[in-house]
Amino acid sequence: MLEISHLTKRYGHDEPVLKGLDLRVEDNSVVAIVGASGAGKSTMLRCINRLVEPTSGSIILNGMELVALRGGALRRARRKIGMVFQGFNLIDRLTVMENVLAGRLGYVSLYQAISRRFPQTDIERAFTLMERVGIAQYANKRADELSGGERQRVGVVRALMQEPELLLADEPTASLDPRTSEQIMMLLQSLASELSLPVLINIHNVAQAKTYTERIVGLRHGKMIFDGAPDDFNEEALDAIYGGIEAPDDATTESPTASREVGHDAI
């Protein structure tokens, strides 16, 4: 379980990006974080995995206070927080298998990491997960030879190789065509159930949030102004989150990027 209390993030003397957020996420939950650009969605995710240092507040994952951790303790805690990125963050010149096994770097010695000598159990788990998401046939392909959807599935498997207790996804469908976006959202939804894994998804596509998640959290200017079921996310909530202006196209249908990429191969 993830428990966030009074989370605040301020850069210098500017107005805080996050203003005292409170959030509790149970196991198996798939939670969408929505809001206009600059609302604090990505900052919140990066505070959770400590890619960004919170200014104040508490972040507790399964009883462990993450904000207080430093050094080796922080590195060990980060192993339990998987991250799926909008831009995939793969190493293009490496194979799919090598990218997937990068999810185990926090568990192996420096020699094993440099020489890429991973335990057989890690390799077997990698194949199992790749088969689960439909990319096992690409194990020896370079990452830059894959389509966008295939690359994002590599990113998902890499995160799962960490054996995470929490999965964060930062705009995981923004660079994908509409059909592949739906597939990735369905995959995240099913993995949360299969693995008893809480999943937080930062997403602009409100239609997908309402379809594939069981809870929507809306941010505006660093404050949480909506927290409820998709069926309760109505026009009034949308108007409050986007400030009384028409929501961007990608908040109600697919993202502009996705619209331009309809021609990409689907997985």
From TrEMBL:
Keywords: ATP-binding, Cell membrane, Membrane, Nucleotide-binding, Translocase, Transport. The keyword Membrane applies. InterPro entries: AAA+_ATPase, ABC_transporter-like_ATP-bd, ABC_transporter-like_CS, ABC_transpr_PhnC, MetN_ABC_transporter-like, P-loop_NTPase. The keyword RNA-binding does not apply. It is found in: Cell inner membrane. GO terms for cellular component: plasma membrane. CDD domains: ABC_PhnC_transporter. It is a peripheral membrane protein. It comes from the Bacteria. GO terms for molecular function: ABC-type phosphonate transporter activity; ATP binding; ATP hydrolysis activity. This is Phosphonate transport system ATP-binding protein.
